[in-house]
Design brief:
Strand content: 25-35%
Transmembrane segments: 243-266
Shape: elongated
Low-confidence stretches: none
Protein name: PilN domain-containing protein
Organism: Mucilaginibacter ginsenosidivorax
Keywords: Membrane, Transmembrane, Transmembrane helix
Helix content: 25-40%
Oligomer: single chain
Number of helices: 7
Structural class: alpha+beta
Number of domains: 2
Length: 404
């Protein structure tokens, strides 16, 4: 199912940032994005002051939400990351912390650990407000740390990044070293994501939405909230079920279509064959005559020594190249006459055989030549047919038979 994984993730989401001021007032900013598996597009940019209901009028509440909280009530501590377990880190940062009262978020950059906390009562308050407007919250992030996945998209070429009251300090390797907050921290120029300008107030909601639609490809920086995590897994599970179901239905439809086409073709072929049955009966006798003629011609070709078009000159060259110096080659016969098989039809030939005749004082040299011949790929077998020593000529006469 690896090919289907692009269809399992959330392809449209909105990031909502609620920035809580010290006096309790708040500002809501929203950025809606979508992805088609290849490109991410910003669809909406919204800003609402002190009015969650107003947001519901401008944003489709069927779109999944990644909520980001910042400002009053969000506590962030920074320490050097230790190799110990999570409980050790929490005890070092906030002694006597009752983790049951807080939602915790951890973000590690190189050797720095940033832990953000928010009381469950505060976070649940904002989650409930949005859910009352019909929104579905799938992810909660705290502070500016969700931007870690998208800062490289901004037209910022310095280590430090400044926007909307936040300054993120980074080293030369772009690892986070500190985060500072002040109303004086304002972007010194118009920020852009790629070529599209974006208000500095929308950086955080964009980052929240970005990591939600790409949650299957990156590790989101988010608080651990059982309710939102379970809801996210449920939606992904539903998508998988729908995609798998659609695939199964599609396969069944294709099988039914193939079955229909096959049956239609078989029926058509059956009708055609029925029509040809009478013609086939009449042509059977002609076919038998033709078959007998072909067999007779094949037998004639075989008797004449035809072996399928081998390049005889090349075969002879290869045999001669392997000839030992002690051996003298006198005669080569390709498909020689079969002296033991001659009838009224004429002379017969030994099919696909080569007969080599010559002289050698020692049979060892002849055997060495045979061994070399057997190494040729086209040779199926080679052997010494006979070897007779001629005392008058003080040399041996041999015949070698090669099957190819």
């Amino acid at each position: 199912m690896g090919l289907l994984s692009p269809y399992y993730h959330i392809n449209q989401a909105a990031g909502i940032t609620i920035d809580i001021a010290q006096d309790g007032s708040y500002t809501i900013n929203c950025c809606q994005v979508s992805t088609d598996h290849k490109q991410l597009t910003i669809e909406k940019k919204l800003g609402v002051k002190d009015d969650a209901e107003g947001l519901a009028k401008k944003l489709d509440n069927k779109i999944p939400i990644a909520l980001n909280l910042s400002g009053k009530g969000i506590l962030t501590k920074q320490v050097t990351a230790a190799s110990g377990d999570e409980q050790q880190d929490m005890a070092k940062i906030i002694p006597n912390l009752n983790v049951d009262d807080f939602y915790l978020q951890q973000f590690t950059s190189n050797d720095q650990l940033f832990v953000s906390l928010v009381r469950k009562t505060l976070a649940d308050h904002w989650i409930n407000i949005l859910e009352q407007q019909g929104f579905t919250i799938l992810m909660l992030s705290l502070g500016p740390f969700a931007t870690s996945h998208m800062l490289n998209q901004l037209n910022v070429y310095e280590s430090d990044v400044v926007f909307n009251g936040i300054q993120i300090n980074r080293d030369a390797a772009l690892n986070w070293t500190a985060v500072q907050y002040s109303p004086a921290f304002v972007a010194p120029f118009i920020l852009k994501i790629g070529t599209e300008p974006i208000d500095q107030q929308l950086i955080m909601p964009y980052a929240a939405a970005f990591q939600l639609v790409l949650a299957d490809k990156l590790e989101p920086v988010k608080a651990k909230v059982d309710a939102t995590d379970a809801r996210y897994l449920q939606i992904i599970g539903t998508k998988k079920l729908k995609v798998t179901g659609a695939l199964i239905l599609g396969v069944f439809f294709i099988l039914l279509l193939l079955n229909f086409v096959t049956l239609s073709w078989l029926n058509s072929e059956n009708s055609r064959l029925d029509g040809q049955a009478s013609l086939s009966a009449n042509s059977n006798s002609d076919m038998q005559v033709l078959t007998e003629q072909i067999k007779a011609k094949e037998a004639l070709l075989k008797d004449m020594g035809w072996d399928g078009g081998f390049n005889k000159a090349r075969l002879i060259d290869q045999l001669a190249a392997l000839l030992p110096g002690e051996v003298t080659l006198k005669e080569i016969a390709i498909n020689p006459a079969d002296i033991n098989n001659k009838d009224s039809r004429g002379q017969h030939f030994l099919d696909r055989r080569i007969k080599l005749s010559g002289n050698s004082q020692q049979v060892i040299a002849v055997n060495e030549w045979i061994a070399r011949i057997k190494t040729l790929k086209w040779v199926k077998g080679a052997g010494l047919d006979n070897f007779e020593f001629d005392n008058d000529q003080n040399t041996g006469k041999f015949n070698i038979i090669i099957n190819y």
